[in-house]
Design goal:
With 186 residues, the protein is an alpha/beta fold. It has seven helices and eight strands; from the N terminus they run E-E-E-H-H-H-E-E-E-H-E-H-E-H-H.
Length: 186
């Protein structure tokens, strides 16, 4: 772990947010996993279903490389970041998160056309509601976690619930479920 990422036992969020002025939704996780921090991008653990769920919801395969994923998110008008900016955490276990400092969402909310904020899972919801919502005055909708720890939810069930994001992406290059069927995808 580099000196920039760890200070006094705290791990500092090493990944910048992904957004541009066209973003319509903001999806917030809690804090990047060890694998994501090592990869230098969001949802880097191969068992996390975030990218598979987005592919299903948006009807388009996800690029493999980081730059391709960034372009994919921006093309679909999705901003992506995490609630927590630094914390103490053991490995990737959300249950061990302590001494939280949250990210400042002001630049995203002021520069982008954010119509809805979504949090990926209960941990992101907990810290968003406690620290961020009082600052922004913007409520967040909770989506079920794409983490492998949420094994009770299949990828298909997650995608069904995550389809709620589509109503805010009107005008974005987003395939609707009927379009997927016409392409022969499930």
């Amino acid at each position: 772990m580099s000196a920039e990422q760890e200070r006094n036992g705290r791990i500092v969020h090493p990944i910048p947010p992904v957004y541009d002025p066209r973003a319509r939704i903001l999806i917030l996780g809690s804090f990047p996993s060890v694998r994501s921090r090592e990869a230098g991008f969001y949802y880097g653990h191969p068992q996390n279903r975030f990218w598979k769920v987005l592919a299903s919801v948006l009807g388009e395969e996800i690029p493999e490389d980081i730059e391709g994923k960034k372009k994919y998110l921006l093309r679909h008008r999705i901003a992506l970041w995490d609630v927590i900016g630094s914390c103490e955490i053991a490995g990737s276990a959300d249950a061990t998160i302590r001494n939280v400092a949250v990210n400042d969402l002001t630049p995203i909310l002021e520069q982008a056309d954010i119509r809805a904020v979504f949090v990926n899972g209960k941990t992101a919801e907990k810290y968003y509601r406690k620290y961020t919502e009082p600052r922004t005055g913007r409520p967040a909708s909770v989506l079920p976690s794409t983490s492998p720890a949420n094994a009770a939810w299949t990828t298909e069930r997650l995608a069904e619930e995550w389809r709620r994001i589509l109503r805010y992406l009107d005008g974005a290059e987003t395939a609707r479920p009927a379009q997927l069927e016409s392409r022969g995808r499930k």
